[in-house]
Protein 1
Amino acid sequence: MSLDSKLDSYELAPRYRELQREAGAVAAALAAHADVADEASGIDPLVRETLAASGLASVMVSAEYGGRFESIDSLAVTVVREVFAGTSGHLDSLFAMQGIGSYPVSVGGSDRLRKRWLPAVAALEAVAALALTEPHVGSDLKAITTTVEEAGGKLTIRGHKSFITNGGDADFYCVLCREKDGFSLVLVPADTPGIKVTRPYQIIAPHILGDIVFADTRVPADHRIGEPGRGFRLVLSTLATFRVSVAGAAVGLANAALNEALRHTAGREQFGVPLAALGPVPSMLALSWTEIEMARSLTYRAAAAAARDPDANLHLSSMAKIGATEVAGRVVDRAVQVMGRFGLVRGSVIERLYREARPMRIYEGSTEVILDSLARQLLKQHSAGQRS
């Protein structure tokens, strides 16, 4: 017994339904390999090969540079991530980071940078990464200490980035730096001299993470992305475009957890009846189903709005990210509970989903940080309404 995760009630356009079908074929091909891939600290070759062959990474690049659609579409990304995350966190991350890591190049890079890197991103011939956080800087990105200086037609980067997804496996990094009184983004190819990568951390749901030290790392001046000192806008635009897709991934994970709970409780008897009909179990399953549908409704509303105008609808994307990731945490916890001791078995699907759900409430903006931002926006709107 399982829930159909297709979104019939949303009347998605044919191109999104085709993406669902294609993503489903990739997920099915890799399902038996997910337990191996999701323990990897580097890119799994089979996952990369399968995703590349599918052509789905082209969703992350505009048609001008080999992409699937005319422009990068938040709803398209969200549709694919829901399917992928229900099967493999590693697959989901590899797909998502092709967009998150390359988006600044798409919207702010020179023609030369776009032609050099974006077709390779679309074909998964190059792996992208976005280097923002530092050892002592997480949510407060304006406190970063990595610097870039321009002299003699070269940009020199000095600093230390930490917990960088795809760190050590990426082919290029979009690096946020201080430049005089502002912040700039710089594209740094991974083979540039002066880069040292270490992997001092691994998290509870294994992930490709690296610390990257830039020691007088020099690139041509045209590797700056966008205007000098205005890179922070590109970072915010990246978040506005891709944050809602985290909600899609969370919905897919929650749906997979509920299916595991249904499989176990419908197929196991206690006191002469199926566990799914015993005591509080039915209400726990029904509540999980209800919360998943609520999260999906908000997620797809927000994703459609972000596809139209990501910057103007960041508040909806943020709400969806909070709502869906918190739901995923609750649903997977209930699934473990109703499965009893079988929910605690190491190496099981539900154990992997349980571990993968937890980081979702932290990365790309923790629940508390996003709530604080939303509260400020809400109060600002209220004050403006009181004055008008």
Protein 2
Amino acid sequence: MTSQEKCFPLFPSYKEIQYIRLDDYPSLANYFGEQEGWKQRHWEWACDFLKFIGRNKSEHTFTRFRSEVEKFLLWSFLIKCAPIDEYRKKNILEYADFCWQPPLSWISFTNHDKFILANGAHESNPEWAPFRVKTAKADETKPDKKKYRPSQETLNSTFTSLNAFYRYLMDEELCYGNPVQIAKKDCRYFVKDTQVKETKRLSEDQWDFLLKTAESMADSDSKYERNLFLVASLKALFLRISEFSERSDWVPVMGHFWQDHDKNWWLKIYGKGRKLRDVTVPTGYLDYLRRYRLYRGLSALPSSGENQPVIEKLRGRGGMTSRQLSRLVQEVFDAAYESMKTTNGQEAGQKFRELTTHWLRHTGASLEIERGRALKDVSEDLGHSSMATTDTVYVQADSKKRAQSGKERSV
């Protein structure tokens, strides 16, 4: 097979991979049935690795690693045509060259399901491709596959995932070396970055405008009470969108809000790395919690043992997925953009076109640090394992001083 021909997905979702049988995936069964045995063997190694990652890390990490391992094996099967346990540093660097400029047939503009259920079997989706052209949310120009280049973040994710894959294979005594670890330092596509880092966040005025937009939507139509509560929660409690979503091993419920002996409110969160943490709940946030609970016909504040989902579907039962929650937040972003554009012009509204849900977490933490709250306290609420992470991502004081002193230079 040449690099210009269409490739195919190798791995289903985390739930489906637990019980995967090739007979249920005819396209994979047919492919491996016609190939040398090492290809199916490597696919089985990867399945075991991904199950291990999902079980011991998180479903989010599984999804991220699945994408990278899938691309690597497809390159190994269809382009390199050589077993991965024979690779050396130069082969990993060849793969990096491939990732820097993959064939156009391996690139898509949007996400597609990997498999389509047909006649009781999972058939490969012909629309799926392993690479995707990403554009800024505010960019209305048509994307061009020929301009695809992986970001530094994507390259780093590629090496991180493959490094973990080879370490697993070594632990299982399936490989006797890790070429990824030594190849990364010689990869010519990594750039040493000493730029000023700007946290993706809203200013205090922009946040106030967004919150007022959400309040106005909820005042006009009660169906937007969920949107208001979610937006306020992500910012005030520094949450990731996934931390309010229903997952296979965790459902956020109202009983996770709790009060200690000193009448302080907390929220128990199941975060990245399968870690539980308790987040401080500010007094001002309780007004939004009360408003949302009363809208749902609940008592003003939670009590222990309540098992209602924190954010529930309007139709059906149970909590919501990250994707469903993201849509609720996006409705507020879109409304804020239209409102700001109408009152202050296109340029003023542009920031609301760039927003993602994670900006709300950044906004909440950044404003708290600027308010003077102890970095250690903010770090623990964020769930960072080290204050150094919080300091690197959120503290911009040195850059502000540098910018101010730079303005004072004469020409």
Protein 3
Amino acid sequence: MSEFLESVSEAGAGPRDRVVLPPVEQMGREVWSLAWPVILSFALDSILSLAAMLMVGRLGAEAVGAVGLATQILGAMRAGIGAVGTGTVALVARYIGANDRDSAEEVLKQSVIWGVIVGTLVAIPVIVFAHPLISLFRVKGPTAEMGARYLQVVMLSEPFAGIFFMCASALRGAGDMRTPLWIGGIMDLLAIFLNYALIFGKFGFPALGVDGSALATLAVLSLGGLAFFWVLSFDGMVLNYRWERMRPDWGLGSRILRVGNPAAIEQLVIQFGFIAYVAFVASYGAKVVAAYFIGVRILALSFLPGFGFSAAAATMVGQGLGAGDKEFSRRAGWLSMRMAIVMMTALGWVFIIFARQIAGLFIDDPAVIVNAIQFMRALGVAQPLMAIDWTTTGALRGAGDSRFPLWGSMAGFYGLRLFLTIVITYHHWPVAWVFWSLVPDFMVRSSLKSWRFRTGKWMTIKV
């Protein structure tokens, strides 16, 4: 937990004086103290994804495509859980900034309840309609069959994923970035072990291939949700989950969802846009699809500073507003963005320079490697723009201004990337041009969102 949050009142206390925010000269250190556990947490997640992709990659391009397509749909279907998580961060940060721990803990409890409800409601239709959903990508045969089975198995974990993500969101809103780190780290190590054992049939387990990877994901998300629930029942945590009165509060639940809904709509709309985008990519063949998803997993490593500084910006902006210090929130947002740009640009160059060597670690198919290199280089060039996009999005959402990022993302993705992709594939131009369409997409997103943050209108948002 960051130093300036140690003044938060003990459990059972109501709102008192607002917390003491760090002085300007310590703001950089505070941003980093909030960002690095998130960066490391997502780094471990990325290592897990890379390890799983390396293992699945040994099963061939069709297996890689199947897991990648199912994961794309899974991302779209988690928009509802994302709504609860975004609202949770904003409300918890405001209450912690105002030194009202009781209200922050009530938000935690309700977010867990609603995360389970939303996760369950989303999982049922996806499990039933998994095959038609995979067919949206215009793939057939083993890729479609393996992808549908993977999706059905992983979706069984959604109620537990609701617990996992809501507890992590609440703690991050409160400034406790380290508890999600160590719980997530343990789960990631377990996931790597289970993927290896179940994919290849090691340690007495059967060799299940892609199905084994799905079962490993199901087991880890379920155990992770239960672990969070158990840990937060102990006194001494920055937030506690109280077991009594486990009933939905429709009033507080609607507030959480109202703040988070625009973010959920953004994720849902963008993810379905990605389904269309990947469908166009898939028209170039299974090897291009495999290259796309290998590139996404590899470049996820360069996204890590964006995740970390976005979370730091959301927490500090929300707590600054809760404490009544708008200038603190403004400075925290801009500083987070600058730090993210430096780190993401550096990592982007590493991946651009060593694209061929890195792609070769995942698969030995020359055609897949060539296309993966093209995609990795496009993403590498876009890193500074992504840094601006993600940190300003985090800052705006931390303030409760989650509607504008929706419009900014839609303008970039649909107005440029998807439009350009349609034109490129219609004329049968090289698939590399499809990959490079993401650069103008993020130019629009970063410009619009940084302009919005500069106007200061987010300072007047009520949550």
